[in-house]
Amino acid sequence: MWFGGPCTEHWRSARDCACRLRPLAYWRLYNIGHGPSTRWKTTDGVETRFLLEPTQTGRGLKDVNALSTWPRNRLLLALPSRDLKRVMSELEQIRCERAEVLMDADSSLNHVFFPDSGVVSVVAVYSDGSVIEMATIGREGCTGVQAVFGAKRSSVQLLVQIPGSAAKMSRAAFTRAMESTPSFRSLMYAYVQAFLEQILVSGACNGAHSLKERLARWLLMMRDRSDDDALPITQNLLAEMLGVQRPSITNAAGELEGAGLIARGRQQVTILDRQGLTKASCECYKLVRARVAFHLPKTYT
Predict the structure, then answer these.
(1) Contact between residue 3 and residue 67 where contact means Cβ atoms under 8 Å apart
(2) Distance between CA atoms of 263 and 188, rounded to whole angstroms?
(3) pLDDT grade for 246, boundaries at 50, 70 and 90
């Protein structure tokens, strides 16, 4: 697990406390216990809460400042601080690269991912290899809907659409947290409801609204989970996610661009007028936002 090394008094905000920090170093925790009384062992044999051993970063993030403000996942941050501290001992921070498959369909459900940044699509995979998106997950959620109900295999593919980072948690640790931490369990149940709302509305939207409206909605959903108006996505990806042919996406995107709402570039779509794009979208965009906010206040912007 990769950490900036905050002390037990400032676990959630390492930047506020330098008692365990060394500039330009990275720390790895070695667990020699379990549960709330977990102890950590240093390289010199002293048992403490944190290991003060510099190590290479591997897939961990390279920016100490980014580590010191981790996690950024709003679902995790909705936990009481004491429970967040307990859960964090089970997390590993990883990079999520564009087009990376975090979990394949019909594979073992070994981990649950809590995105800190970027966007992960939940996609159905068909026998001919084609895929279509069923839902999106960003920093407001996690990939643990099936794990909540004890599933051991994934029926969907988790595909990174916009690169970023995530906190990875083993299914075993996720199950323990569900059983032992009431606040975590309640939060996951609320997220399941919000996630189902998104899927139900998306299903209705696909049959009721035009491609241009659905494209506008999809771009807005990506922007809600991103920190930039420039989205690193291609028109081929848009066609695949929305389940249409590339020429259809080209025409729909051309209409939005002609209205001054977006700009298409090389492997990128930039939102120029978010308010105008919202008006061009169908009502499903605001509906999903309202329903998610009802189940998970303060986790969805």
Answers:
(1) yes
(2) 37
(3) very high
Hey, is 215 helix, strand or coil?
helix
Separation CA 297–CA 290 (nearest Å):
10
Question: Is-contact 142 119, C-beta < 8 A?
Answer: no
Beta bridge partner(s), residue 154: 107
pLDDT tens per residue, range 111-164: 999 999 999 999 999 998 888 999 999 999 999 999 999 999 999 999 999 999
Contacts of 188 (CB under 8 A, 6+ apart): 142, 144, 148, 178
HSE, side-chain direction, 13 A CA sphere, residue 256:
33
Helix, strand, coil percentages for the chain (3-state, nearest 5):
40, 20, 40
Indicate the residue type of 300. Y
Q: For residue 25, give both structure tokens.
A: 């170093």
Q: At 59, is the secondary structure helix, strand, or coil?
A: coil
Question: What tens digit of pLDDT does each residue of 275-297 get?
Answer: 999 999 999 999 999 999 999 98
The identity of residue 285, as a single letter, is Y
Residue 164, H or E segment = strand 164-170
pLDDT in tens, 162-200: 999 999 999 999 999 999 999 999 999 999 999 999 999
Q: Quote the distance between the C-alpha of residue 41 and its chain's center.
A: 31
The CA-based angle 172-174-177, given to 5 degrees, is 110
CB-based contact 284:205 (threshold 8 Å)? yes
pTM, 2 dp: 0.76
Structure tokens at 6: 């905050």
